[in-house]
Amino acid sequence: MTQTITTNNNKTTLAYAQQLDINDPLAIIREQFAIPKQANGEDEYYFTGNSLGLQPKLAREYVIELLDSWGQRGVKGHFEGDHPWMPYHEFLTEQSALLVGGKNEEVVMMNSLTTNLHLMMVSFYQPQGKRSKILLEDHAFPSDHYAVESQLKHHKKNVDDNMLLWTPRAGEELLNHDDLYQMIEHQGDEIALILLPGVQYYTGQVLDMKTITEKAHAKGILVGFDLAHAVGNIEMALHNWQVDFACWCSYKYLNSGAGSVAGCFVHQKHSTNTDSETQVNRFAGWWGHDKSSRFKMENTFKPIPTAEGWQLSNPPVLSLAAIRGSLDTIKMAGGIKELRKKSIKLTQYMTELISSELGDKIRIITPSNQAERGCQLSLMINVEGLDGKAMFTALEENGVTTDWREPNVIRVAPVPLYNKFQDIYHFVRLLKECLQ
Ligand SMILES: Cc1ncc(COP(=O)(O)O)c(C=O)c1O
Ligand SMILES: Nc1ccccc1C(=O)C[C@H](N)C(=O)O
């Protein structure tokens, strides 16, 4: 396709995007990733790090290293080598804690996201008397809905009466925090748990986790966050915000491969009590048991007094190896602070280019304020007779990978670890051509 972008001002030229790439201190990190190719052999314009992140070369290297250790050592690999499997999850703790702003004692990589949501609700959804409701948002990722609904049923609670939904106002896509605060104010003593995303998967809206937690706690409500779209994307301070728990997956902005092991945060205030009568109840397994006596094979569960005390099984170490490779790559880039700096520039540039090149043909439903959005922009096609799904397909045929989410949004996420400013230039150019 020819380049049809107009050059009425500097920002709309390819040269401008090239200049941004030259001045980008993180540009070199792209080389640490495997970039999928188009049929013509050129790099894809990949914008779906919000669904599945690209493969870090270190992830591959560490997985192969682990396979070799298994091949060479057999069972002795649990205890031998540079990265023995027994404590393998511990190699991930420090970097994971930095990503969510938790203490090392508050973070553990284990299980999968929805599994962890369930385990956390077992511990932190304890309906008592009229305080029996769970508040979530109406458009929460379906898995979260199903998890909440099944937890209510598990407690023999009527779902319609006990699922409280925070819904955008009529005709709006974004959630209005004032509406949530009103619900907390007026129905707070009926709510046992608030479970919300850190970043909403459909609109890309960042929620004010700090204020939500404060307001909920003032009414005696526990708060958990699903950070699938937040971790590795925005900066967080879960410990200081006093968040009770959080769960996230590692295959989006954490680039650890499909279905890779997930993360979990449990605030210190809930884990230090190991008294068998008064400790926070949980579904327990041997990997959560005190490490020094784990192999004594005794029947009394003594939880590790940290988030690790919620582990069930010895983890799939091949997956942990991929996560370690990804976390080391993020560290190489300078951590989440540096990623966020570039991310803000990428989304800002994309917003400006869409606005100047496509005007009102595209409506960005993601908040325009930087504090309320991360990498992802959610686009609606605003042209009579053109449907978004067809546009998504046309982009795909031109080497642009985005994703389509029903009912009518194309999600694009320029990711600071591996996206170039030039990717954005080409995305807008091709979108413009597809729209014509
Ligand atoms: C917000 C959110 N919650 C839950 C899930 C489900 O995750 P998993 O399949 O890893 O349990 C996803 C992604 O698939 C998600 O984006
Ligand atoms: N794990 C997957 C497997 C297959 C297809 C999509 C996913 C996703 O992760 C979707 C993502 N959570 C989303 O925000 O849409």
UniProtKB/TrEMBL annotation:
Keywords: Hydrolase, Pyridine nucleotide biosynthesis, Pyridoxal phosphate. Its cofactor is pyridoxal 5'-phosphate. It catalyses: L-kynurenine + H2O = anthranilate + L-alanine + H(+); 3-hydroxy-L-kynurenine + H2O = 3-hydroxyanthranilate + L-alanine + H(+). The keyword Glycoprotein does not apply. It comes from the Bacteria. The modification N6-(pyridoxal phosphate)lysine is found at residue 252. Pathway: Amino-acid degradation; L-kynurenine degradation; L-alanine and anthranilate from L-kynurenine: step 1/1; Cofactor biosynthesis; NAD(+) biosynthesis; quinolinate from L-kynurenine: step 2/3. Gene3D superfamilies: Aspartate Aminotransferase, domain 1, Type I PLP-dependent aspartate aminotransferase-like (Major domain). InterPro entries: Kynureninase, PyrdxlP-dep_Trfase, PyrdxlP-dep_Trfase_major, PyrdxlP-dep_Trfase_small. Pyridoxal 5'-phosphate binds at residues 113-114, 141-144, 226, 229, 251, 286, 314. Homodimer. PANTHER family: KYNURENINASE. Catalyzes the cleavage of L-kynurenine (L-Kyn) and L-3-hydroxykynurenine (L-3OHKyn) into anthranilic acid (AA) and 3-hydroxyanthranilic acid (3-OHAA), respectively. This is Kynureninase. It comes from Colwellia hornerae. The gene is kynU.
